[in-house]
Amino acid sequence: MRFVSLITLVVFFLSSCKTTESIMQFGPKTSNEILVEEKVQDFEPDSRPRLDVAISVFDPNISKLKNDDVWEELRKAESVRFAYKLKTFIEETNKFGAVRVVPDLNATSDLYISGKILESNSEDVELDIKVADISGNLWIDDEFEHTVPDDFYDRGGYNEDSYDPVFKKIAKKIEEKLQFISTKNLDDLEHISDLRFGLSLSEESFSENIFQDEKGKYTIKTKLNKSDPKFIRLNNLRVRDQLFIDELQVFYMNFDENIDSSYLTWQRQTFQEKQAESKARGEAVGKAIGGILLLGAAVAAAVAGVQSNNANTQTLGTLGAIGGGVAGASLLQDSFKKSAEAKVHRDAIEELGRSLDVEMSGKVIDLNDETIELTGTAKEQFSQWRLFLKKIYEKEKTPDVVIPSGI
Length: 407
Hints:
The chain has 3 domains: about 30-270, no CATH class; about 275-350; about 365-395, no CATH class. About 55% of the residues lie in helices and about 15% in strands. The protein has helices at about 1-15, 70-95, 165-175, 185-200, 205, 230-305, 310-350, 380-395, and strands spanning about 55, 100, 110-120, 125-135, 140-145, 210, 220, 365, 370-375. α2 (about 70-95) packs across α6 (about 230-305). It starts with a helix and ends in a 10-residue tail after the last helix.
């Protein structure tokens, strides 16, 4: 019976030290085909149109079910920081127009980037990235990952973001795709961008200029004449919309600057704590096994002593059982301390993200004798703003018609 208990004890400790890998659930992929073409012959970077880029705040990928491996507050902060990081690296390529972070993909631009955080634990970062242009062509649908080198901080990376290489890789991939887009197509994308902005304001006014096929791709039917009053009204609102999004950039920039120091500290401390945790687990396993072996030796000594007919042997066996039992229990207790220390590392990381949140103060905007007060999150305010622009356009298109306040 004692041997059965010993085996049970060994199995318990070995199973408690075993780690399990979580299964990552991926969302449905887009039905559009990846844009694949040969490199264009008219590739002259200095003379080609430069596409404006909209980068949506990343999907933090927080499950509705509780997941102890994901710190929600930190993930939400990363959803903004990662989008802003990618913006800075795309700007550094000097191959695009305005690069803006936007609350969602309802913003108007020439090129769109959406991201989903698949993994971020200070050691590994993995992102699901999709890039598509305003006409509906999908440029990139891929996963990008980076593992932080073990000696990153030993080499002086204390003031650097250990995830930077993954954003550089994404920016480089997007830049490379430009080599497959002709100058004519780049020019058309800018016109489609104007027309799709027009569709968001008044579908009946702009549907005659643009066509959408059964695959969701957009093509130009007729370009707008710049002297057309419809184009002038549209352009004025488009400029105002871009200014609004430019104001959002200040918000995102301030947010990134405010969390930068704390986030770099989180990366460094978590990375080092995970390494310490791994070492602590190794020590805990070693000491637990050592304790089990001593207990086993104590049991064997006791059995040998009881079975012996020699009084001295029985006494030594009993003393060996007591001594081995005490030493084994001491080592087992120490292993629990080590395991508790490892848990403290995890708890310290979780505590760090609780104060992070994305909030935006309200604002009052006057435009064309109309006033609107925007409230809520950046995404909510942007949605309110778009409805306001639609109301303004309808009012200018039909000045004698009263527009319902609900529009």
